[in-house]
Specification:
The protein is 0% helix and 52% strand. By secondary structure, it is an all-beta fold. The model has no long low-confidence stretch (mean pLDDT 96). It has no helices and eleven strands.
């Protein structure tokens, strides 16, 4: 069992920045690839960014490339999502999730464990 707790969400003006954190506990953090998903009202929960267990491989959805950065520190059992140049369309609940490292971390189906989510609201 892996427990994930997100923090760092809030209200920010367009063009601003936020840094989301996800603290993990339970099983060995380095055995999991990690992802950040987001879900806006009435929409599907989509993958925003993912990082391999080692941190050597990262992937981003096209709409956030160049603006968001995912990182992790296995010694601190933490993954972050740095979000810059935020836009109103980034408004959503953001979820941290963990996938066993043997699976395809680009697939939502690979993720076994989820946090409770943190709200990000970007005003225009």
């Amino acid at each position: 069992q892996v427990r994930l707790v997100e923090s760092g969400g809030g209200l920010v003006q367009a063009g601003g920045s936020l840094r989301l954190s996800c603290a993990a506990s339970g099983h060995t953090f380095s055995h999991y690839d990690m992802g950040w998903f987001r879900q806006a009202p009435g929409k599907e929960r989509d993958l925003v960014a993912a990082i391999s267990w080692s941190g050597n491989s990262r992937s981003y959805t096209d709409s956030v490339k160049g603006r968001f950065t995912i990182s992790r520190d296995n010694a601190k059992n933490t993954v972050w999502l740095q979000m810059n140049s935020l836009k109103p369309e980034d408004t959503a609940v953001y979820y941290c999730a963990a996938a066993p490292s043997a699976l395809n971390y680009l697939s939502r189906a690979a993720y076994d464990y989820w946090g409770q989510g943190t709200q990000v609201t970007v005003s225009s």
